[in-house]
Amino acid sequence: MRLVGQNDKRRSRWGARAGVVVLTLAALAPLVAGCGKDSTAPEPAAGGQQPLGAPPARAPDFHAPELRAAHAARVAAAKRWGLKLVPLTAPPAPEKKPRITTREGFEVDGHRRLGLPPVFTTVPTDEKVVFLTIDDGAEKDPAFLRMMSELKIPYTAFLSDYVIKGDYGYFEEMQDRGVGLNNHTLNHPPLRGLSHARQKREICGMQDVLEERYGRRPVLFRPPFGSYDKNTLRAAESCGIEYVPLWNEEVFVDRWEYREGDRKLHPGDIVLTHFRGRNEWKGTMPDMIRRFLDEVTAEGYAVGRLEDYL
Ligand SMILES: [Zn+2]
After folding, report:
1. CATH entry, 119-309, from 3.10.50.40, 3.30.2170.10, 3.20.20.370, 3.40.50.720
2. 151, 293 contact by CB (below 8 A)
3. How far does the centroid of ligand 1 lie from the alpha carbon of residue 32, in Å?
4. At what angle do helices 196-214 and 168-176 cross, to 10 degrees?
5. What's the gap in Å between 186 CA and the centre of ligand 1?
6. Tens digits of per-residue pLDDT, 115-156?
7. CATH 3.20.20.370: which residues of the chain?
């Protein structure tokens, strides 16, 4: 509420003030990227960290119309979906992946020695980028799929079979749009304290479902409620899990919750939300995404793809 509320006042009109700055930077960034040695490289972020050193005038003119068209499409999509600001473009995927380690205080006994998968809430990076992760799978809103595709916002899903089995096809379409489908157990129990065998059934059973339905066994697993113990990580590791991302912030349709006391985003933060609709909270998936994106953009962050950093 706090930041968004302030920005509501400061940036009340579409395209005014900060909006124009964002649009201008975003328009220049592709010119720099598109004319470098690797024309297939993703656009650099349109934030303060982007390489704007080369004057745009040096860019060949023939690039301009299509870039202008692509940019206009982004602006139009942002406006169509009711965003206050045009989302910033994420920096290119890092060439050298960061070393992911377990967050201090989140280790289990013998964590490193046993080679158990790391449990983390933030990815090490200096870029102003955050990652959106969406859990469970109860709400299956076609508008959400369209919104994310049109805005080109990446996210990572953690699915639980008991809520997706009524409509596996919805998540197949999600996967077709480039979204990674990951493991969030079969039945969503708090795992800590359950027997190793029971935990293995929950986690490895979900690996089997995901492979059967979607053709691949993911390497990302998130324990329901963030509840885990050594048996969780041993079971996960035994069925091919390599990473256990938790989260540093959670966004709801009407508020944010922060793990850290500073109540701010940090480079590499993993943000949690859920597939929920009007039955569970006072709004739709697009309503929640609007809150998420407007805050992320207002703080000068782009949304990156978590898998690009792992
Ligand atoms: Zn969950």
Report:
1. 3.20.20.370
2. yes
3. 41
4. 70
5. 11
6. 999 999 999 999 999 999 999 999 999 999 999 999 999 999
7. 119-309
